Structures are given as C-alpha cells and as structure tokens.
Amino acid sequence: MSGSPTSQVVLVELVHVHSQGSAADVMDAFHVDMQQLLANPELAMETISNRAEQCLVDKSVTRLTYLDDEGDWCTLHKDTVHDAVQFAIALQPEAVGVEIRKLQLRVVTSDKKSEATSTEQIQELNKLSEGTDARRLIPKLAAGCLRIVEESQQPALFVLIDLLLSLREGDLKAESVPSAIPQFVAAFAELSEDSVSSILARVREEAQKAVEELRQEQASEAQGQEAKEVEVHPHVICDGCEVSPLIGARWKSLTQNDFDLCEACFGEEERDPAAWARVKSQVRGSVVSSFYGPPEASLQAGGCNTVAVHGPALAAFEASEQKSSTTTTTTTHSKSEDQAEAAPESSQQEEKPAFKEELEATVAKEALRSLLSHPDDAVRAAAALALRSAQQGCDVQMTEEEQPGESDEDLDSEWAMADAKSLVSSEPDEAAAVSPLLNKPSAAVVSGAPLVLGVEAEDGGAQGDVTAEFGAVLAGAGAKQAFRLGRVALPTSDDPTKAVPICAKLVVVNDGAVAWPETTSVALVSGDAFGFPQMQLGALSPGEAAELIMDLSLPARPQPGAARSSWAILDASGTPLGPILLLEVFWTAQ
Ligand SMILES: [Zn+2]
Q1: Cα(273) to centroid(ligand 1), Å
Q2: Are residues 471 and 582 part of one domain?
Q3: What value, to the nearest 5°, has the Cα angle with vertex 206 and ends 205 and 208?
Q4: Average predicted confidence (pLDDT) for the chain
Q5: Domain around 173
Q6: What does the alpha-carbon distance between residue 371 and residue 429 come to, in Å, rounded to a whole number?
Q7: Residue 123: which residues within 8 A CB-CB, separation 6 or more?
C-alpha cells in the first residue's frame, strides 16, 4: 500500500443560507492546505470569514456551520475546525499523492440593517436599565423574552428556550450574558426581516416592563432600608428648625434646659463639644420601643419563672420590701422636701441614719435580685447557693407557703447579711466592683427632665443625683451612681383600673473609655416595674449619650402607702454600668 500522501488539501465551499434556510447557493470555493488549516485554526477562521464577508453586500456573517457525522449543522469556530475537517467529504484524488476533502460551510448571515437595529436596541436597553442592578434585571428580561418566544411561535427562537430558562432561574448569571449573545444573534438571523422588527418591538416592551418593575422593587427596598435605619426621636422638637419628631442625629444641650438640635441645625455654627451630647434613640421605623406601646412579652425582665429559687426569694423580697416601704413613708412624711435632699452630714442626724440604713438594705437587695435573675446559670446558682446557706445559717425556712406578713425586723437584718454574702460569693473581682476600671463599660446620668405626670399625680420635686446618700452601698453592688427619677404623690383610689401615666426622661452618657455592648439595657432590679420591665439601650461609643424615655403606669391603690422601684443599666451579664435609677411613689388619702 502507498504511504501517506505528499499533500493534503481542503476544498472549502461556502454556501449562503437565506433566512428560514429556504434557498442555498455556493458563494465561493477555494483550496487551503490542510496542515496549515489545522496548525492555525484561528487564522483559518479569519481567512474563511473574510472570504465569506467579501461575497456579501448588505449582509454580514453571523455564523458558519459544518455538517457533522450525525447530520447536524454545528457552529464552526477555532475549536471545531479540527472536527469539521474530520467530517469533510473525501474526494477522489485528482493526482496520486494528493488527498482532497471538501468542507462545505453554511454561511448564516444577518442584514446589516437589522444588525444596526439590534446594536441600537442594546444601547437603548443600556440606557433604559441605567441605575438598576443587572444581576436582577437579567432574570426579569429572560422571563419577558420567554413570553415573546411563546407568543411568536417562531421555531427559530425555540433554540433559545433553554438559555432563557437558565437566565430566568439564575442558573446562568448576568456575567455570562455576553458569551450567550452569539446564540441570540444566530437565532434572530433565522428570522424574516418582518419578524425581526416585530419581535424587537416586543423585546423593547418587555425590557421596559422589566426595568420599571425592578426600579419599583429597588425603590421600595431603599425606603424600607431607610425606615429601618433612620433614628427617630419621638416627641422631640428641634429648637432650631422646629422639626418634630427629630430625625437622625440629635444634639442635646447640657447647659440649657430642654434644648435640642437636629444635625443640620447643630452644624450651622461652631459649638463647644463639651456643652452638647449626641443623644441616640433606639427608635427606628420598625423597632418597637416602650414609647409606642406596651413592651413586648419577650422583653419582660429577668425570666423570673426560670429560676427555681426565685419564687420563694421573691416572696421574701416583697415581704421585706413592704416593710421598708412603710418605713419610708413614715420617715419621709416627717421630713420636708429640703431635708430629704440634704447631704448626709446635714443637721438631720437623728433621722438620716435610719433612712439611709433602710435604703442601703434596699440597694443590696436590688443587687441580689439582679444576681438571682442573672442570665448566666452559674451566677444564678452561686447566688442561690449563697442565699440558701445564709438562710440556713440564720435558721430561716424559705418555703412557698411563707407569708409576707411573717417577716419581721430580724428577718430584714438577716436578709441584709444574705445579700452581702451572695454578693461576695458571686463577685470574686471585688476590687473591680468597688471602683469600675477604665476598660469596663461605664454609664452616668447627666441630666433629667422634670417628670411628665398624669393630672392626678403630683411631683415631689426630689429628682436628681442621690449618690451621696447611697455611696458605700452602691459601690458594694457594683453601681456608682444613684439617680432619683422623682418622688410622685398620688391620691388613693378605690377604682383599681385608674392607673396614672407618668413619663421620665433622662440623658445617659457613656462616661467610660470603651463602647457599651449592644446588649446594654436598663432593667428593673427591684419593686414594681410600673409597666417598664426592661428596655435595650444598645451600643454607645465613649462620650455618646442616649435619651432614656421611661413611660410608666402607676396603679391605683385604695390604701395610703409607698413603693420604691429601681432600675439599673446593665450589660448582658447583669453587671451594672453605673447608675441605679430610683422612683418613689406615695399614695396619700385625700
Ligand atoms: Zn433643626
């Protein structure tokens, strides 16, 4: 047999396929060296395309196809040149030593006019979709195009269905659209000129629809985002431009009473940063604060029912508290307002110690209560254990059956001892508790507005910093400031539904060197919550301030009496950041 032929030649025959594949005629035929063709398929593609283009007048080549061994017309590109040659038909050699194969290529063309139209179309689409997210626009466009394919029932477009489905479902990302364009062009090339223009018109419609839809989606998302992010200060009026509620940053004067500015008004002139506090509001468009209604059930402080020891402990608390409340009534009733506000070293020596002692016991109990409702199981257990051992030591039986009436003077002092023990056992870092270290989150109340009271209530005017009265006890409990929200007098009433609303507003500042944790909250530590068990304050940077608005509801009482509640600013571990807020309520017979 003979060896390999000396020369291998490919006869390339270009056949023009008109739209719809109706008629076909040979445009051109030429010989190329097979080895050269296979050695540089890129150059071969260019050569063949150029020859095809030269034969066309007002059309351009969109694709070249070859027939494979299964009878399918496949697209010729540099990677399929080898295949195409393989499947080319071997011709009878004209001379010995020459191998010739005929490669028939179909030239698929498009009108230059419609090509220009589609370029315009793309530019138009680009302009239309400006400012929208292409990754989200593409699936919508694909859905629109699928509708067009379905409506038009043009078989030439059916090849696009898989591609469009992938785009609509997001399996094929917007980034891969450029690589899919040849498929669209090829499909359109199969259409008649009339079909192309009517389908392009439909594409324009669908594109407009998709862009409009996406614009609306993006706009409403932006609005939702804004509503969530905007800080709202309900019931606060900017004293510069009188906008209310104040929205965004709020600057509160520390030198003028009840003077707030919005960010714009604050920025209008140079101001002394020391005289202003940036007040943060927890109120965001969708955030429910105590201001807009009753606190959510999940906000109920402490999780009392989850602490086994808490039931009896609470009963004992209430017992001792009732007692101490009564004491408060008698002592404070015998004093004038000035005396109550006087410093400990004032002349009221004979009354002060008893009052102070009683308050000290209360504060210690408050600390114990916060330990007993501590979120950490270990801390709660330690507090409970200390409480039990203290109780056993004092031979006091703590049972569910115990009645508040059974408590007496001795029990009260024993309680003070139990409080002290539990505090020591669960607070090993006593030094840190006594003087908060610089790297610990710290808070202080810088100012308070007068209480806003329902008509029946009377403000005793005792609002302000009362740290001096509590000093040592506060330090023992890890707190460093006592701030009295007020002392409110209410008439007794037989109507149990007659609650009196009051509102306490105060400014709390981060006076430490580190930001508060996000979990920072103000929570009830003793007494009646008066409808305000807990509220999250959130993270505050050093030097930043937050306005705390406490909407309280004071219940009616038929008998004269007194009650004191206290709240503390705590982190998630129940460690006080500084202030303890006190509210004293008196019910007096008319
Ligand atoms: Zn303003």
Answers
A1: 17
A2: yes
A3: 65
A4: 70
A5: 129-228
A6: 15
A7: none
CA dihedral 259, 261, 266, 269 (to 10 degrees): -50
Per DSSP, 58 falls in state S
In a domain, 379, yes or no: yes
- Separation of 538 CA from ligand 1 center, angstroms? 25
Q: Among 111, 137, 172, give the residue marking a domain's end.
A: 111
Number of domains composing the chain:
4
- Highest average pLDDT, of 54-58, 253-257, 368-372, comes from 253-257
Distance 474 CA to ligand 1 centre (A): 39
- Average pLDDT of the residues in 418-423: 36
Q: How far apart are CA 205 and CA 194, in angstroms?
A: 17
Q: Does the pLDDT at position 178 exceed 90? A: no
Check whether residue 312 and residue 346 sit in a common domain. Answer: yes
Q: Give the whole-angstrom CA distance, residue 47 versus residue 110.
A: 19
Banded model confidence at residue 265, pLDDT cuts 50, 70, 90:
very high
- 123 by Cβ neighbours in 10 Å (0-12 / 13-18 / 19+) ranks as exposed
Distance from residue 269's CA to the centre of ligand 1 (Å): 12
Provide the token pair at 507: 């400014």
The amino acid sitting at 259 is F
pLDDT classification of 473: cutoffs 50, 70, 90: low
For residue 522, how far is its CA from the centre of ligand 1 (angstroms)?
29
Same domain, 224 and 241: no
Give me ligand 1 centre to Cα 236, in Å: 11
Residues 190 and 326 in one domain: no
* 310 and 407 fall within a common domain: yes
Distance 249 CA to ligand 1 centre (A): 10
With respect to residue 124, please indicate whether it lies within any of the assigned structural domains: no
Please report which confidence band the pLDDT of residue 175 belongs to, taking 50, 70 and 90 as the band edges: low
Do 365 and 278 belong to one domain?
no
**At 411, is the pLDDT very low, low, confident or very high (cuts 50, 70, 90)?**
very low
- Which residue among 247, 263, 287 closes a domain? 287
Residue 442 phi/psi, 5-degree rounding, is -140, 145
Clarify whether residues 216 and 160 are in a common domain.
yes
Identify whether 353 is part of a domain.
yes
Give residue 511 CA to ligand 1 midpoint distance, Å.
26
Q: Which of 168-172, 349-353, 365-369 has the lowest mean pLDDT?
A: 349-353
Domain check: are 549 and 566 in the same one? yes
Q: Compute the distance from residue 300 Cα to the ligand 1 centre, in Å.
A: 36
Are 568 and 520 spatial neighbours (Cβ–Cβ below 8 Å)?
A: no
Per-residue model confidence as pLDDT tens digits over 3-33: 555 688 888 999 887 654 555 678 888 888 8
Cα–Cα dist 138/169, whole Å: 10
In the prediction, which pLDDT does 141 show?
Answer: 87
Ligand 1 centroid to Cα of residue 250, in Å, is 9
Q: How far is the CA of 265 from the centre of ligand 1 (A)?
A: 4
Confidence of residue 244 (pLDDT cuts 50, 70, 90): confident
Task: Pick the closest to residue 129 from 188, 202, 184, 209 (CA basis).
Answer: 209
Question: Which pLDDT band holds residue 348 (cuts at 50, 70, 90)?
Answer: very low
